[in-house]
Amino acid sequence: MSTAFxxxxxxxxxxxxxxxxxxxxxxxxxxVGRITGLSRTAVAARLGALxxxxxxxxxxxxxxxxxxxxxRPPVHxxxxxxxxxxxxxxxxRSRTQLGVCDLDGAVLASVDLDxxxxxxxxxxxxxxxxAFRDLLASVGRxxxxxxxxxxxxPGTVDFDRGASLDSPIMAxxxxxxxxxxxxxxTAAPVFVDNDANVMALSERRGHLExxxxxxxxxxxxxxGVGIVSGGRLLRGASGAAGEIxxxxxxxxxxxxxxxxxxxxxxxxxxxxxLVQTARERGHQVDHIRDVVRLAVVGxxxxxxxxxxxxxxxxxxxxxxxxxxxxxxxxxGGDLAQAYDTFVAGLRESVYSQASALxxxxxxxxxxxxxxxxxxxxxxxxxxxxxxxSAAVDRALAHx
Length: 399
Description:
alpha/beta; Arc Repressor Mutant, subunit A; Nucleotidyltransferase, domain 5; five-stranded mixed β-sheet; 14 helices; globular; ROK; ROK family transcriptional regulator
């Protein structure tokens, strides 16, 4: 008997049955009955609701039959990933990445929007809605097929309101709820989170399959981390968990940060700070991606800047490793495009400054989904919110 349904919890709901099927733990009606203890009539009732919703299909493919044990062979139940789509948008200071994904998180179509630095929310969101409309048309789906929208923005986010709380990088966005901008396109629920958090969730089909405790480092224009403990994302009391970029460091003493304070790690290691330094040294660069491209082709000055950024971020990260004892540190963001150079500095600081016990089995690994991790993570966040057991039960009760 599965431990998912304990004595006193009550009969398994349709949403819980859906989770069994979606996770591959129940492949047939007999499996559902055996795992949940439900009667055949109760199993039929719950599956009837799920089949009617389109989230589950039964025996839809010729080879979708289980092994025969004599008599009529059983037909398989399976999650219908094509029963709708989710829209995913990773909003950044100078680039926004958008995608349409199926209900299992696979990206069906995507596009990047290059924008003026620091756009107003109403201007950029109008472009986002138009681009989402075009992406839906490109995959032959209508807005009615949208089950949820997942968005990410840099900085601290009020998850419940779907608005930025504090983002020095996205000036003018604080307190602006993003869901109303999507209403001309879809009435589906809109979820908004910090960019590092959603990139951590992108590892649902990646490092989280092996490591239930990890820290995701996003090193781009700004610096942040997403923290997953025991498979659960940690946001903190006010959504500020992981704001490691504004940790004080002696190497930045007296240097102004975009947050309005001085002495933050970002002042010496964030993309915006590296661009300033590169310009002072005579390089014609506009974005951290330009600095990274120089480092990748072997420019010694750019390589030094990227490695030093890794070292400074690693100094702050070492304390987090001691505190949280993760199994893995996953590295993503623009600086990760110069992975070997950046991680050389990061590894040097983490392994020299964190405790031997905390680093004994620690691995430092690259992001699974590369530059699409923001889109994949936004989709994973939205899917988790609308397809968990309780959400499915609510949807079936109020279709």
